[in-house]
Structures are given as structure tokens and as C-alpha cells.
Amino acid sequence: MPLTDITFGLAVLLIAGLVKGLVGLGLPTITIALTSLVLPLTEAMALVTFPIIFSNVWQASVGGRFRAIVRRHWPLVVPLAVSLYATMGLLGRKGPDWAFLVLGAVLVAYSALGLLRIRLHIHADLEKPLAPLVGIVSGFVGGVVGVPVVPLMPYLQGLDIKPSELVQTLGVVLCATSFSLAVSLLSFGLIDGSRALVSAAAVVPALAGMWLGQQVRLRLSIDQFRIVVFWALLLTGLYTFASRLL
Fold this sequence. Notes:
The chain is mostly helical. It has one domain (3-245). 79% of the residues lie in helices and 0% in strands. The protein contains 10 helices and no strands. It has helices at residues 3-23, 27-35, 41-60, 66-91, 99-115, 124-145, 152-158, 163-187, 193-216, 222-245. Helix 2 runs antiparallel to helix 3, helix 3 crosses helix 9 and helix 4 packs parallel to helix 8. The relative contact order is 0.22.
């Protein structure tokens, strides 16, 4: 990767880490969405590999509910990880040309749900049958574009989970996802020595951004900040569509 692209990617990771520190999510979504504007999608996915592992391990370890979360959500996590790995294996080294259209659709759908404040309410009886299906579909999306936010995020937010536990739940689920993504990229030759070094270096701005976001969280309105983030993702998704279709 050229030095200018690497510098741009590291700056984006600092911003994405800031968002994750403020609202608890968004690091891979924002990083891949923005860096894919100047980098091939597989390069963007390789860049974010180590930052999302470290940030999600950090998030998963805080809260004291790790074992309970794993027991509850393993029917979601296992199909998700397997589906992601299988999808990346089937798509090959460069990925399909339509992957950017999937990325645009994911960004538009996720941001629209956030802006419209649409939240599902999933009955407890539906959690077990839905979990494997959501895992498979989310794993496919994650294997294509590196961000399994749809339908994973609406599903988790629709469950009966306390807000304080939801943050750790997201960390646990996304931690498993990030490990599966890393193993996939390594297995299929999408991370070599130079890409691994760049991704490892990217951990520093990502975690610095998370720390900074946590420090300023009490000084900002998180609801207002969420609106700005969702609008940014929506515009990025629309731009992704336009750049590929026009």
C-alpha cells in the first residue's frame, strides 16, 4: 500500500476508535466504509483486522458477564464464524465486483435504522430459532464486506438485554467475528507480512481513539453524536452505490 493510503487509513482508525469509545460500536464499519473509498475492499479488511480484535477483546472483558453471554449466544456466534470463514473461502482472494454494492446496502440499511430509531422487539421464544439464521446471514455479509452489522445489530438490540450488558455482548460476539475474519484472511493469503505490520500499527490509533472517546463521552450528547455518525454512514453508503453504478 502507498504511504499516503496508509496514512489515510491510520487517520480513519483514530476517528473510528473515537466513535467506538463514545457509543460502543462502529470501528470496523466506519474504517472499512471510509478506507474502501481509496483502497481495495480486501486491503481495507486487512488493515482493520488487528484493531478490531484488540478493541473487541477489551470490550468483551469488561462487565463480568462473559461466561453467561457465551452460554446464551453460542448458537449465534458459531454459525456466524463458520459462515464468515466459508464465505471468504468461496469468494477468493480479490472478492466479487458486487461486494461494494453489498457494502453500500449494509451502510444504508444500518444508518437508516439508526436515524429512524427503529428497534425490533424479539420475543424470548424466537431467540433460539432465529440465532443460527441471523448468524449465517451476518457471517455471509461479514465475509463479503468485513462488517457483519446487518442483521446482527438489529437482532441483538431487539433482544431482552440490559443496556449495560449489551455493550459486553457486542464485544463478545464481535470478538469471535474478528478472530474468524483474521483466520480467514490469513488462511486465504489476504494478510502477508507487510499487511500484518500495518494492521498491527493500526492498533495504536484505534485504541488511542477509543480512550479519547471514553474521556469526552461525558462532555457530549451521545444521541446527537449518533445522529452525525449515522448520517455520515448513510452518505458514505450512497456514495459507494453511486461510484459503482454510474
